[in-house]
Design a protein that fits this description.
The complex is a heterodimer of chains A (216) and B (436). Chain A has 216 residues and is mainly β. Chain A is built from three helices and twelve strands, in the order βββββαββαβββββα. Chain A has one domain: Lipoprotein localisation LolA/LolB/LppX (outer membrane lipoprotein receptor (LolB), chain A). In chain A, a hairpin with a 4-residue loop joins strand 4 and strand 5. In chain B, strand 5 and strand 6 form a beta hairpin. With 436 residues, chain B is mainly beta. The chains are: A mainly beta (216), B mainly beta (436).
Chain lengths: 216, 436
């Protein structure tokens, strides 16, 4: 995380994701630095978009797993420039939130892309997500979003997302680098993913409040 | 002190590559430095360095050993204790070395293991029950140091205990927790003459003027097995609700101050008494709101009485509850309101405290500039004694691993009340916390 004056704050986390039938569970443990170490975040994401997710946050200073509201999908995630919704969808878009329009084909570097515009299906959804409009460039080989622009609900240019180091892991196209610039605040967040692994089985017990409080 | 040197030497040797085949070693820690100025005198109350190194040994067979040390140095030393080993500690607990100016201790030391499909944590540790923040109903597993009343972070003031902690998964989302606590360590109270010594007549007996008072050494339970505490908690997740049912058979951590009027004045004999605590918690999120509830029924609670019948103590069953509502409807903002209530059954009118007591808490936290700045206000208010505590705090996340803050702790109200008794002990503080 880099502020407008160039001051950096670095966080290292480890995350796990697993499907339990239609339900997706994600857990994130903070590893470094020591003053945020053991902070952890657990989400139960339900397939039905009308059902709020269940979310818990473990704060080591309180030694308590705190139930938190999941309704504000547009809130920024723990000081980053990604919203809770951005984190949850992992670069995907919830179809029921937007109307989509393909604008044109474009070349970004060597990549052939489709430029798609998405507008929220209602004012309520726009307010919830914090986006009045988004445009994204989809690579026609990997079908992942390699760039996106976001506008706020007043139509002001809000953020720019760029993905890099896109390669296959276990046969799945994976973005290993994400940079998002917040034009409103001058703040920037860079995500770097390493040791991505889609094959290793993760124990169900990792996705529990017990694991959240014990860091594993 | 020899023990300290031995352990540090051992941990240093273990971290050499020769042992790398046996385990991975992670080392981290925090250094917290805080200056507190007492507002009534304008003099420093503490200038404290709190260093807590942590070692995590991850063994190939899945075992994990955690050791957390504590080194506290205070140049001022007004908060005590002067005793190198306060009476509240059991023979297996307590600091290795302690004075008003410092402390060296093994803060936590436990082994994590997964055996027989269950999760075991064995050793010196903290276990926190309950859903309430700041106000305790079920969070009574570990005792607490009251050197700074409740102003210190609970994580720092809670006294870790030696215990066995087993969590058994039941089905997909349920867990049964079993606790066995042979460690008979109880609350550490502020010493007489320090800023946060308890004076409220609700908590300590007051003798008529001119009558001498003799305080005896506490009569502490000391049997490893017979005086153990036991706890059970069943946790479940049903229809969006987080639910727990809790039971604890324990010694209350405050000594009961039995009184006896003799020819030489009033003798006070502190003793520890047992109680059964049965309770539960609930929480769920509804849109922008999160509802939290916590209830507890104690079969025996002990309260100061105005006369010496029953040795100056009234023993009552108590029902206590906390109802909390959190709101996150505004970006970067967290608002929480809690209503704490305590009701005594079989109430004796000579009891100093009221039959029903109500306390409210209000917390608002607001983050600015991508959570770099955090402004916080916590208010605790007793509706019975009309006293309270106001705690504003501003925190700046200066670097990845460095937070700095300024804060104030402002007591007000009736000097006989839980908070008002410290009306003279307001303070302003500044400090930093560095992770390494």
């Amino acid at each position: 995380m880099i502020d407008r004056r160039g001051k950096e704050r670095v966080r290292e986390t480890i995350g796990y994701r697993k499907y339990f039938g239609d339900e997706k569970r994600t857990v994130l443990f903070y590893l470094e630095p020591a003053n945020v170490k053991d902070t952890a975040f657990l989400t139960y994401d339900y397939r039905d978009p009308s059902v709020d997710d269940d979310q818990w946050l473990y704060l080591p200073a309180l030694r308590k797993v705190r139930r938190i509201s999941a309704s504000d999908r547009g809130d920024y995630f723990l000081g980053t420039d990604f919203t809770y919704e951005d984190i949850k969808k992992e670069g995907k878009i919830e179809p029921s939130d937007f109307h989509f329009k393909t604008l044109q084909e474009e070349l970004i570097g060597d990549a052939k892309t489709l430029l798609v515009e998405a507008t929220p299906q209602s004012d309520a959804i726009a307010r919830e997500l914090g986006y009045g409009k988004t445009q994204f460039w989809v690579d026609t080989v990997s079908w992942v979003i390699i760039k996106a622009e976001y506008w706020d609900i007043k139509g002001k240019h809000l953020k720019t997302l760029k993905a890099n180091d896109i390669r296959q892991v276990d046969g799945i196209w994976t973005r290993h680098g994400l940079t998002i610039d917040n034009h409103k605040t001058g703040h920037k967040t860079i995500f770097t993913f390493s040791e991505v692994d889609y094959r290793t089985d993760v124990k169900d017990s990792v996705f529990t409040k017990r694991a959240l409080s014990k860091g594993r | 002190m020899n023990k300290v040197i031995l352990v540090i030497a051992l941990l240093t040797r273990l971290s050499t590559p020769a042992y790398a085949d046996l385990f991975d070693l992670e080392f981290s820690g925090t250094w917290e430095q805080e200056l507190a100025i007492a507002s009534n005198e304008g003099e420093a109350q503490k200038f404290e360095s709190l260093v807590e190194p942590e070692w995590n040994f991850n063994f190939d067979n899945g075992l994990e050993l955690t050791a957390i040390g504590r080194l506290r140095l205070d140049l001022i030393g007004d908060l005590g204790p002067d005793q190198s080993r306060p009476d509240n500690y059991s023979s297996i607990n307590g600091p290795w070395a302690q004075s008003a100016h410092g402390e060296v201790s093994l803060r936590e030391f436990y082994l994590d293991a997964e055996w027989f499909g269950s999760f075991w944590r064995i050793g010196k540790q903290q276990v926190v029950w309950g859903q309430a923040d700041g106000l305790k109903v079920l969070d009574v597993i570990n005792p607490q140091s009251f050197r700074e009343f409740i102003l210190d972070d609970f994580d720092d003031s809670r006294i870790p205990l030696w215990m066995l902690n087993v969590e058994v998964p039941v089905g997909e989302d349920d867990t049964l927790q079993f606790l066995w606590l042979p460690d008979t360590t109880y609350h550490e109270l502020a010493e007489f003459g320090t800023p946060y010594q308890i004076t409220s007549p609700r908590l300590i007996p007051h003798a008529p003027e001119g009558v001498p008072v003799n305080l005896s050494i506490p009569d502490k339970p000391d049997s490893f097995l017979a005086d153990s505490d036991f706890g059970l908690r069943y946790s479940s997740f049903r229809g969006g609700w987080d639910i727990t049912v809790n039971y604890l058979y324990h010694y209350a951590d405050f000594p009961v101050l039995y009184q006896h009027l003799g020819t030489g004045g009033i003798s006070i004999q502190p003793e520890y008494e047992r109680s059964h605590l049965i309770g539960g918690t609930l929480s769920n999120a509804f849109g922008d709101f999160t509802l939290r509830a916590e209830v507890g029924y104690s079969t025996d609670t002990f309260h100061i009485a105005r006369d010496l019948t029953g040795r100056g103590i009234s023993n009552n069953p108590e029902f206590a509850s906390v109802l909390g509502l959190d709101w996150q409807g505004l970006s970067d903002t967290f608002v929480s309101v809690q209503w704490f209530q305590s009701y005594l059954f079989d109430y004796d009118p000579s009891t100093v405290r009221d039959r029903t007591e109500n306390t409210l808490s209000f917390l608002v936290q607001r983050y600015f500039t991508s959570e770099t700045w955090k402004l916080e206000l916590l208010v605790l208010q007793s509706l019975n004694d009309h006293d309270g505590l106001i705690r504003p705090k501003l925190t700046y996340s200066m670097l990845s691993n460095l937070d700095i803050w300024v804060s104030a702790d402002i007591f007000h109200g009736n000097e006989d009340g839980l908070f008002g008794q410290f009306d003279h002990a307001d303070r302003v503080s500044a400090g930093f916390r560095l992770g390494f």
